[in-house]
């Protein structure tokens, strides 16, 4: 079990009921943080809370549709009522409903994907960053993707939202740095989660990955969580405005 390097700190993790978000939430709780996890599916959230009861940090589940402004306001209010203002924010929730040829993507899919993948992060940061700056400390971690760093056939909408999140990360880092708030992004490659199962269950895709990726396997959620723990901790006190790639070397070529 990790040292309690996040003891006394409060974290919000969206999409915390499964996959990467769950792994990050549990890693933070193992490091002593009080963690609020949020998503639409309360059963997944509660299962994560139940699994985490033996960890040093406390955990609270809050049902939240990140695409709804009032839900985000309730999430932050519930966090502050239970644990106090957030010291750490992880914008992890995402959707990918616009996958397909660029000319065939509907307006509805575009708007929905941007609302969840980009606008939700902007809204949550507006709700949490001011109090972080008042206290002179904070770490914001945006879960982007290597899809936001290189073109992806059929991924116009998803890739562009992740590219937007990366650029917003850099702007926030510039604006918040002097006030003690660090902002970084993590860009995972293919990680074995429910969200990405279309890819890692595809034998042809995996065959190509294993033939070309320096670390020839799919990544695990815990491998992203380790990077998130570093960025949330004081070990990363001089790190801001960067995209930290966790992809097995996929884009090194």
Characterize the structure shown.
A seven-stranded parallel β-sheet has the order 3-2-1-4-5-6-7, sandwiched between helices. The chain has helices at 19-30, 42-51, 69-82, 107-135, 156-176, 197-200, 203-212, 221-232; strands spanning 10-14, 34-39, 59-63, 88-91, 138-143, 181-188, 243-246. By secondary structure, it is α/β, with parallel strands linked by helices. Helix content is 44%, strand content 15%. Strand 4, helix 4 and strand 5 form a beta-alpha-beta unit. The chain has one domain (10-246): Rossmann fold. It is globular and about 45 Å long. The chain has eight helices and seven strands.
What's the short version?
With 253 residues, this protein is α/β, with parallel strands linked by helices.
Number of strands: 7
Largest sheet, spatial ordering of strands:
3-2-1-4-5-6-7
Structural class: alpha/beta
Query: Portion of residues in helices?
Result: 40-55%
For the report, how would you describe the main beta sheet? 7 strands, parallel
Unreliable stretches, pLDDT < 50, 5 or more residues?
none
- Enter the CATH topology name: Rossmann fold
- Helix segment tally: 8
Q: Which CATH-level-2 architecture?
A: 3-Layer(aba) Sandwich
Q: Give the C-level CATH assignment.
A: Alpha Beta
CATH superfamily: NAD(P)-binding Rossmann-like Domain
Rg, please?
A: 17 Å
* Proportion in β-strands: 15-25%
Record the SSE blueprint:
Blueprint: E1 10-14, H1 19-30, E2 34-39, H2 42-51, E3 59-63, H3 69-82, E4 88-91, H4 107-135, E5 138-143, H5 156-176, E6 181-188, H6 197-200, H7 203-212, H8 221-232, E7 243-246
Parallel strand pairs: 1-2, 1-4, 2-3, 4-5, 5-6, 6-7
Helix pairs in contact: 1-8, 3-4, 4-5
